[in-house]
Amino acid sequence: MRSVRARAALGATVVVALAVVAAGLGVLLVLRANLTDQAGLQAEVAARETAGQLALDVPYGKLEMSDEEDHPVQVTDEGGRVVAVSKDLEAISGTGTDRVTPQPSPAATEKSDDDHDGHDDDDGVSITPGRGEVSTDAPHFSNGTATVDGDSADYRFASIEATNSAGLTLTVHAGAPLAAEQRAVASVRGAMLAGLPVVLLVVAGVTWLVTRRALRPVEGIRREMAAITASEDLSRRVPEPGSHDEIARLARTTNETLTALEASVDRQRRFVADASHELRSPIASLRTQLEVGAAHPELLDVEGAVVDTVRLQVLAADLLLLARLDAGERPGKARVDIGALVHEEVSQRTGDRIAVTVSVPEPGGPEVTGSRGQLARVIGNLLDNAERHAQSSVAVAVRAERGGAVVAVTDDGAGVPEAERERIFERFVRLDDARARDDGGAGLGLAIARDVATRHGGRLTVAGAGERGARFELWLPGSR
Hints:
single chain, Helix Hairpins, Heat Shock Protein 90, 3 domains, 7-stranded antiparallel β-sheet, 16 strands, 48% helix
């Protein structure tokens, strides 16, 4: 099934069906047990009435058995012989013996021969008022059948022991019909079987409708996303339902993703446009100089061509590094002595117009983990920026701080206005757009420096340096 509604409706129907069947079986078992217990209680009452008469030495032929049609009775002696049965009892099972014809008990015969000081009953048997007893133990219950006056039925039998005055132990088996229990259980079972399909249809229908209503916003989100994909218009947003459920959160998350995607695509477009613009200038200048040199070799500005070529090479390298960073390139895992790296970078800058003052701890200073080449690029970009704006001094210092290393680059230039201190880390941003491109970079150095710092788990910030100038601080976590 490809439909969520169909799967939900089927799942709910199956669960309800299992629950209803389990509950129905439980109800039937409890109902049958209760009705069977009631039948057993009736059988016990009938058995105790007969057992009480036997304990009083009432002759078997004189036993009064109430409701003989509803409560068939069978009396057996210690030897299992049937000594008395209720009227019209034709067959019985479930009591230990299926005999229904009374047989004389030897013990009873002996008692009749030994009786004295008695009286003659209607059958000519001399008896003595009994002083027997009825067992107070819980009766034994069993299920069986009995045929009374041609009608066979199921019964619940209770067995009670009684002892007469002669010490003869007799067992009374009295039954109570189970027809009421069977009819009630059958009626309830039939009602459940008839009602189950109706219940399942209602559950399936309600689940289908509720699921359809609940998933309606999802269908709206799907349609809008399909439209956005077809139109490539990332400014569109999916509808957000007014509820505060999971679907509403899904819609909000989808819109947030679209917003981030739109910003990323816009940033990429601006990057391509800015890169094209930045590349156009040195390429056009270089082409012009080469064309002039081809026509008039004596006018070829070789030095200018070299400068433009270097600018083009640096810009291409910057763009390549940014592309790798945007692609998620992971920094290396090498241990880098940040102080030694600063010394190495400063020592290579022989053509700077302002000498760089270095303050670095002795060997054994703070170490960081990362890409040595990328970190050297960050330090070089910060020094380039300071050289470009400084009036008379540039200083770099390294220190350990908060479980990491800090590289601070300070210059005494015009500084960075507080409102522009985050903007300068954006790509292709130059605060002084009017100055000649030959005097400045393409606006990528600080952007690259911050991206590299972030990917190394660090941060790059800028602040004022006293009365004038700027102070850039690079913090990197220490190696572990």
